[in-house]
């Protein structure tokens, strides 16, 4: 069983210290998870706009996949496959149509690919995003263009390869953002002058959405007396998908999966408790990461799953152990639906006797 193989060392440590077999005591199976009570939470959208460019996901020709003008805080999430028979590149062009210089500060980003391994691309982009807080500045003079990230211009996207990017930025002037695919030897500004917007595919997974971030907070403090509970994310029933506008044609669109939305989760807990946290994918194959900030000082990015690329094919047994944490302490989790992965997921809280145990072998500490 995948789940037992992955967290057996954790169980053995807890067994030796507490005299309790966690697996035997709680019988954590997918069926149990589906029947567990949902912990009451409130959900609040905040932050600036999300620009989503994922349609057409399989890009059949040169052109613009998405385009809109934004200012202030924003996030761009793009996810595109070169669906032609020749080499291409995928770039993001910033255009300043105003009379003053625009300063765009990129505050966090992640880039995956190009690669034929789509799950690896999505996971790499998310892990880089979670660990990356290096700032850089892009200055765009009036009536001119500039690339959001110059490294994209250097990447050759072979047929069938995927590129996934996540960029958080702040713009002090209105800036036109265009995601486009073009020939590797094309002059970008010349191409952009005549580039057409490509039609969306049947999924229409592109648009501009208010509230690039989502705050999930517990409505009351969790205590071990409640037993095992879950928090469901990105299922469009308990946790609704965000709606927006496709700026290229004015149509209303649904972000099916909440791709590009970054969740900040804070679930208050009571003192004297120890709680184990698990992630369980419910929609199918899944490969991503999750950020944790513990006691206001320890920050980590954990792969979900760790030790292998993906999990979720057996949603009744696939769980990623995120650690055991003391109740009453500050614990923040950062989650975002990974590109190429399936939703929803469930965060499982399990009462645990004994010790705090952050899985050291899986930690990627953020400096």
Helix content: 10-25%
Count the DSSP helices.
5
- Major sheet summary line: 9 strands, mixed
End-to-end separation in angstroms reads 35 Å
Percentage of residues in strands: 35-45%
- Overall 3D form: elongated
Over all CA atoms, what is the radius of gyration?
22 Å
User: In sequence order, what are the helices and strands, one letter per element?
Assistant: HHHEEEEEEHEEEHEEEEEEEEEEEE
Low-confidence stretches: 1-24
Condensed summary:
The chain contains five helices and 21 strands. By secondary structure, it is mainly beta.
What do these coordinates show?
With 367 residues, the chain is mainly beta. It has 5 helices and 21 strands. The strands form 4 sheets. Strands 2, 3, 4, 5, 6, 7, 8, 9 and 10 form a 9-stranded mixed β-sheet that branches. Strand 13 (243-246) and strand 14 (251-254) form a beta hairpin.
Descriptive terms for the model:
single chain, 367 residues, mainly beta, Jelly Rolls, nine-stranded mixed beta sheet, six-stranded mixed beta sheet
SSE inventory with pairings:
Layout: H1 2-18, H2 22-26, H3 30-35, E1 41-46, E2 49-53, E3 58-59, E4 63-82, E5 88-96, E6 102-115, H4 118-131, E7 136-140, E8 144-147, E9 162-183, H5 188-194, E10 206-210, E11 213-218, E12 229-233, E13 243-246, E14 251-254, E15 262-266, E16 274-281, E17 288-294, E18 298-304, E19 320-326, E20 331-335, E21 345-351
Parallel strand pairs: 2-4, 3-4, 11-15
Antiparallel strand pairs: 1-11, 2-10, 4-9, 5-8, 5-9, 6-7, 6-9, 12-21, 13-14, 15-20, 16-19, 16-21, 17-18, 17-20
């Amino acid at each position: 069983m995948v789940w037992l193989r992955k967290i057996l060392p954790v169980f053995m440590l807890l067994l030796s210290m507490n005299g309790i077999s966690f697996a035997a005591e709680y019988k954590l199976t997918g069926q149990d998870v589906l029947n567990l009570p949902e912990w009451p939470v409130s959900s609040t959208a905040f932050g600036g706009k999300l620009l989503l460019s994922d349609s057409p996901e399989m890009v059949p020709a040169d052109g613009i996949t998405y385009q809109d003008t934004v200012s202030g805080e924003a996030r761009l999430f793009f996810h595109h496959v070169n669906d032609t028979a020749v080499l291409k590149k995928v770039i993001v062009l910033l255009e300043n149509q105003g009379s003053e210089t625009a300063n765009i500060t990129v505050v966090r980003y992640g880039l995956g690919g190009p690669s034929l391994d789509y799950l690896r691309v999505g996971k790499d982009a998310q892990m880089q995003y979670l660990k990356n807080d290096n700032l850089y500045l892009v200055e765009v003079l009036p009536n001119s263009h500039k690339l959001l990230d110059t490294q994209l211009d250097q990447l050759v996207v072979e047929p069938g390869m995927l590129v996934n990017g996540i960029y958080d930025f702040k713009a002090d002037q209105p800036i036109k953002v265009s995601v486009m695919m073009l020939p590797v030897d094309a002059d970008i500004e010349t191409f952009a002058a005549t580039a057409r917007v490509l039609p969306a595919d049947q999924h229409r997974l592109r648009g501009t959405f208010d509230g690039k971030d989502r705050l999930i907070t517990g409505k009351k403090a969790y205590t071990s007396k409640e037993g095992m509970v879950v928090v469901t994310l990105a299922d469009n029933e308990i946790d609704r998908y965000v709606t927006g506008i496709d700026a290229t044609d004015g149509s209303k669109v649904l972000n099916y999966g909440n791709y590009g939305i970054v969740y900040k989760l804070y679930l208050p807990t009571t003192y004297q408790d120890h709680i184990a946290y698990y992630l369980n994918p419910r929609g199918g194959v899944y490969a991503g990461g999750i950020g944790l900030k513990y006691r206001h000082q320890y920050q980590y990015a954990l792969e979900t799953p760790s030790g292998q690329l993906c999990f979720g094919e057996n949603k009744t047994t696939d769980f990623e152990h995120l650690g055991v944490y003391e109740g009453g302490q500050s614990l923040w989790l950062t989650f975002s639906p990974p590109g190429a992965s399936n939703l929803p997921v469930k965060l499982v809280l399990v009462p645990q006797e004994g010790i705090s145990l952050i899985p050291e072998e899986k930690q990627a500490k953020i400096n």
